[in-house]
Amino acid sequence: MDMRAELGGCEPFDTCPRAYDLLHAACLFFVEKKRCNMSTIMLEMDRMLRPCGHVNIWDSVSVMGELQETATAMGWVPALHETGEGPRASWKILISDVMCVYQFV
Q: What domains can you pick out in the chain, each with its CATH number?
């Protein structure tokens, strides 16, 4: 699901909880940071993702620190990657896995 296409007014998405395996957000947080709370958007993303889901966030370096901290606090496993533009690029990619809640016996 493309988060940017679906976001409307910082309100919850009209979707069933735990409905997606992968969410992709391109420039969502940089564009919406003045209008929406970043942690609220990430909590909504967490609600939408199935256990063991994945999140790909392509966004400005200026918001990546807060996104990475929030992802870690939510129990995600974030990894920050450079784009093909190199280490001085103004964009980074945050790839994060949502923790699995299954218990294997």
A: 3-7+15-97 (3.40.50.150)
